[in-house]
Design goal:
The structure is a homotetramer of 215-residue chains.
Chain A: H1 13-30, H2 46-55, H3 57-83, H4 89-115, H5 121-147, H6 159-183, H7 187-202
Helix pairs in contact in A: 1-3, 1-4, 3-4, 3-6, 3-7, 4-5, 5-6, 5-7, 6-7
Chain lengths: 215, 215, 215, 215
């Protein structure tokens, strides 16, 4: 099990996963700062607080959409690591680009939530979509690098699994390029693409089903 | 140990636990931002700072109540993972809903702390209770999904343990539905339900005692 | 290796450590929000920024003191887990109290830093010391609970190690009770106790040296 | 495998890595708070939001530069732990100094981003460079302490690997001392050193390539 070309040992994937899990979990949890807590001094009645909260519904919607989006991306990340046995320098770099986009998501979420329904909503939706597109392109680069010539794959990974991941990973760039294009016309249409992708991934016959059979 | 229906391998539960632990630990620690640091420039004496701090006692009480609440929920989460051997797509989704509610808790805590003693307190207590109710319903869905027909259970998990968890998990939805109902009448009564649940779980003969005998 | 009285299995200590490590690491890193970033619009020259930064030296000092304090406490926490083989419900509760105090530390640090040199400095030092005292008392309760009758200890833990930890753990409550008493008179004297404890723990012949010989 | 002089057992390096990974991952993700979310109420058109965002390009550049910087430092940290088999008290202290600098990086990043293009930019670049220099000096102290007389090294670590790490680690202090010196003259020149170091580490024939061959 000698390392070649600077490849790290198999059990090294553990620490890369731990660091990556940390970034995913922190980014998902930091989304909470996007939620609007009204100033109690400006609240004159229970109904007033309720109106203030419901007035900020885009914050709650953006929180849920981005949280699920990060969960789905974490799950995709997870799947790759079931199928590879080692990492190398280039793979770590591509993984770093994925994490960079994930770490930026609380910002793009806040930008979208605060501008939804305001004049800047289409620009905000474009930034939100562009970062999601960047993340999925980095995911694809990471997977194609790992799978080319079975460079980093585990011996137990089947050709069918490799094709399955490639097929699943193709969804993201297509969907988020569409979301980016739609943002030029309508922020609502752009956001609906994200909702549709999440529903698609949540479906019992969705793409996550077919991948993890590492057996 | 072949995966079926997209089930992940047993050691895969490790990474789900690590990610979930991250969200629980981060949400618990982010509660600190709920604590009020008075502006030093407005403090003219030690007594002034002391009065300012004690004036914000709901912040400290809410910090402690929510921190212990997240600890108890983490402990419940932990118990499930002692009893299952694998996870699948649906289980991950239900786990994601639990984590979504946990991640929102620093927000509901801040909302409750800032509005306690103000006109919005009952609305704030209702939102706080509703998110706690959502978390415990997701926990129950997760456990019943895992235990139905012993779908995801470890071979060593006894029928008595399954009944024990189901009984313990029934406490949360009942208690927090009560807290939600009480919030319509009194924020204080609603919060007292949370304190009572935490004292109940902390008792040496409480429900946590009977579950983890995985032996 | 049957569980008794709700005791969790040995490998269960792993997840308690992971969750606790998360809280320690997050609390330590959140201290950064205590550091003062001057508003660039109010800065009219490089010298002006430099004066603004140096004017806030108590923030930087408090950051370093609290960061090292959390590191030393993490190290103490770590030592306990080298010597025990299982956890139970009461132990988890006491561990939860330790984590509650750790999670509150970014708040007490901010309170101290912002009030140092202002009229509220002694009250702030008292709150800072009181939380540190609370943490070390919880640590002692946790250790004495685990060690009484060797309740949770690993078979390899020697009587000498048990006495060593008890001796080392006695330092904290004594030192921080002194810091609390001194805060009534002088914030500076109170803070110096923290610096002294940290230097003491950093010394090569300090108390950390004698404990971890689990061999 | 008896511990000597308070050295912890080999598997103890695991928990030090986990805690350190936490600090690296949290510090990297907290950089997101450096990104500027314009107040939606002040945005009167999509073009207005776009101008506001592009106006804050130093924030985005600083986010990317610091994120990659923390990734590279995490990777360096990671490499050390592939080559050692145990940690002791002094090593933990030096590791704590590395983490202290990492935890301060969101602050220095924010300071740099907000002052870039303003009168304080050179002071900000000096502080940014000084903390990076501090981190790399702590890294060197940690490695030289571990490697002296093979004090903490694994038996499988070759003399070539020890020299390789020492050579790689020499880059940081030289580069960041240069960045510190340049900051007296030009903030832009100082920042370019960071970009150059990151490109150098990202190159396929860069220094990371030669180290991890633990085989």
């Amino acid at each position: 099990m000698n390392g070649q070309n600077g490849a790290l040992e198999q059990n090294e994937t553990g620490r890369v996963e731990a660091f990556s899990d940390g970034v995913f979990a922190i980014a998902a949890t930091l989304l909470v700062f996007n939620l609007h807590v009204p100033d109690a001094l400006g609240v004159h009645s229970g109904g007033g607080l309720w109106r203030d909260l419901t007035h900020h519904w885009p914050s709650y919607a953006a929180f849920v959409i981005s949280f699920i989006s990060i969960l789905v991306m974490w799950s995709s990340h997870h799947n790759i690591f079931n199928l590879i046995r080692r990492v190398d320098h280039t793979f770590l770099l591509l993984n770093g680009l994925v994490l960079l986009g994930i770490a930026a998501t609380p910002f793009t979420t806040s930008l979208l939530a605060q501008n939804f329904g305001h004049p800047g909503e289409r620009v905000a939706a474009a930034v939100y979509s562009a970062v999601a597109l960047f993340i999925t392109l980095a995911f694809n680069a990471m997977w194609h690098y790992a799978a080319r010539g079975r460079r980093l794959l585990a011996a137990t990974t089947s050709a069918g699994q490799v094709r399955g991941v490639a097929r699943q990973y193709a969804v993201g760039p297509l969907a988020f390029a569409l979301a980016l294009a739609l943002s030029l016309v309508s922020a609502e249409a752009s956001v609906l693409v994200f909702v549709a992708v999440e529903v698609f991934f949540a479906l019992p016959f969705g793409p996550n089903r077919s991948v993890p059979e590492t057996s």
